[in-house]
Write a structure and sequence with these properties.
Layout: H1 12-17, H2 20-31, E1 34-35, H3 36-43, H4 47-59, E2 63-67, E3 75-79, H5 81-95, E4 114-120, H6 126-137, E5 142-148, H7 156-164, E6 187-190, H8 193-198, E7 207-210, H9 222-249
Parallel strand pairs: 4-5, 4-6, 6-7
Antiparallel strand pairs: 1-3, 2-3
Helix pairs in contact: 6-7, 6-9, 7-9
Amino acid sequence: MTPLAHADQSPDFIKLLANDARWGILKALASGDHQVNELVTLLQQPMNLVSYHLKKMREEALVTTRRSEADGRDVYYTLDLERLRDLYLAAGSALHPLLSEPRRVINLDHLPAARVLVVCTHNSARSQMAQGLLRELSQRKITACSAGSHPTQVHPDAIFTMDSLGIDIRAQSVHHVSEYEGQPFDYVITVCDKARENRPTFPGDGQQLHWGYSDPLAIPNAEQRQAAFMQIAQRLRIRIEHFLITLAQQ
């Protein structure tokens, strides 16, 4: 029997996942962003061990880092869901073509009704785009609201970006988080670090998730700002698709 050629050896990606601690980190980051101390608590593992595994996953570009907008000393870790999916399917395809499946479709028949509140600081861009995506991708089975700690107005770049995705958010308005006090929410999703770190509680007692993105409005150049808006919208879409599929499977 001919020995396995180097090209037929198991992919490095599979070897990377074959570790309980790394698998636990991926599971935690699949739902939202976390700081390293939060991962230490979730996994009940030493700081140096968690940091080591995060470093290995950063080397494979599965995990990226972002300094907190609220406190630049803090670092958030984010899982690149699209890269994870691509590597996973590539590894399956290398084993057998049938293991390379197309993008999964959200089964709206099994999607439960839920109330979701999306929070950022100004409720002008990131949270507005997330609200529109949640509403449209769930075909309105999700009641999506958004609010800010210091609300201003819906930014024109957010409207333009969502228009390019076929979603009209012109009817959405800005709200202060306090307007939703006393209302029930199944999930509260923060999309900026300041909102998460500067506010101790949120309405509804729902499960809290953090999907942090740098503020595109901090970019002075109009062309670069527009590109940042589109990048955030695309990443939000991926996160929300994953979120809805998870809800539909519960």
